[in-house]
């Protein structure tokens, strides 16, 4: 019997702070935790959970994207380059569809 590596992250995130956090990559945890503590502090002071709900809605796509770590990191690198004004090769959506046969 061969040894298999085990990824402790879930296969699909629960739409809760704990479920989202379980799927995040290590490099996103500090930012997630800081924002989580901030929105929870604000919710405690205001008795209003809208900020917590917004936080979950913002971070859920990050958790889903993080299920494919290489793709997620490529996307972050592309965003970094775009924000820095660097050239990023692109193609029109019609060309992408043609290339993918869709």
TrEMBL record:
InterPro entries: DUF6247. Residues 79-102 are annotated as: Disordered. It comes from Microlunatus elymi. This is Uncharacterized protein.
């Amino acid at each position: 019997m061969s040894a298999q590596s085990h990824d402790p992250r879930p296969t699909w995130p629960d739409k809760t702070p704990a479920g989202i956090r379980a799927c995040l990559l290590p490099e996103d945890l500090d930012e997630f935790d800081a924002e989580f503590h901030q929105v929870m502090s604000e919710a405690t002071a205001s008795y209003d959970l809208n900020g917590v709900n917004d936080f979950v809605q913002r971070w859920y796509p990050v958790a889903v994207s993080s299920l494919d770590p290489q793709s997620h990191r490529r996307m972050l690198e592309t965003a970094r380059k775009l924000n820095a004004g660097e050239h990023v090769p692109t193609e029109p959506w019609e060309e992408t569809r043609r290339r993918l046969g869709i």
